FAD-binding PCMH-type domain-containing protein (Trichoderma arundinaceum), 468 residues
Amino acid sequence: MAPIPGISGEQSEVGAASYEEWRQQYATSTHEDDHDMRPGHIVRALNTNDIKVVIAYAKDNGKAIAIRSGGHQYSGASSTGQSNIQLDLRNTFKSATEDLYFIEIANKTHVRTSVSWSLLEFNSFMNTNHLFIPHGQCQSVCIGGHVQTGGYGQLGRSFGLIGDHIVALEFIDHEGVERKITPTSHADEFFAWTGGSPGNMGVLTHITLEVHRDADYQGSRGLKSLHVYTPEALRKILQILAEMNDDEDFPRNYDLCVSVISEDYPLDGLFDLDHVSRHRSGLSRLDGSSLISLIVIYAQWVPFSSSDKPDEAWFDKLKAGAVFNDDGVKPMSDLTAEWIFRKDREYDYPYVKRTYLTSATNLSQNGWWRDSTLVFVIDNFYQPGDGRREAAEAWAAVNEEEGIGKDKYFSTQDRRVLWGSYGDYNLHSIWPCYYDDETKYQRLQKARKAADPHGIFTPNPFSVLRAD
């Protein structure tokens, strides 16, 4: 594909020196062939005019546009194939004065941010200004992906998702028109943007969020723990999580994330190892990788009134038997930074991933945990060759056979999230896994038809099918 006229930003295509580096995304190592992650042309947009030129070119030439910022979608849905265009927004909107700032409005704090900031950059800005918001945990995911797929993370139980905090969305539509919508001005369109079919409604450029202030939640507390992994130790800790889930009266103040990591995991992405080694040696190598399998606990308590007090017994149960505990009172903007994984990815290998959700409420009795605000993610990275992928797939199949479906212990339904998609790449054929009911899905289909009548925002099958 020849260079697109009128573009001021950089461009690349198959065979160019920059092409291989530019096309890389989180899923490239796994899905570059079966999901066709080799775009015919890549545009690194410099401004809104570049975006408008790409939209007009795509419409005139029968092309589709895949939009990426962080490029972290598990199945590679933020990429596309050789007949289409990759629009790269990683560095498009990064003015410190125009693309990331806060506004005080009627005793509320709003932050206007662009889609180009990484989570780490965004969190740093929030921390500097003593502000916070629920968000994910991967440092290189960008804010555009967060707001279009929910924004799941450590604060899900106490504060919900980042998607719950969206005040306004700014984007460029299929006609090349700059628009701004709110939940009241364009209810159906706003609904579809915030988790309906990410990247398939237009080119999102900026978001306004209602955020929280440290000063309103003084006394917040966080715990990071390491336990040596054994099945018995894990069951004991997961029982605490299951009991939280099953108790409808368990206070909203508490958030808990439990992870199991294998040997050779980049432990320095989770902990300050200088701090850890002062208390406990023999957990990591010089390169920061773990020496043994470990259980990682992130626990948080936040006050919602001046009378709220943390339950010391809850924290004590989580700390019991740990080889390392870091427990202290910190501002919420500091705690949200603590929960971020400080690496771009866990291993430089292909993977088999699964992301499950459940709405069961009997998990402290049947052996598992729940809630649609809690997510169970399994990452199985493997070295290519010698049947290792087949072994990883077989392991995932056993988990699904035992845990997912009628009368199964984790979830009676196959419930998934768009950011952690897996399996069938045709979203329409498996929409019940991602959406609550047919009425909701049909509402999204109508919104997609209005937003993308020419198909220029349908770069791959992982899109809500437009209504007839």
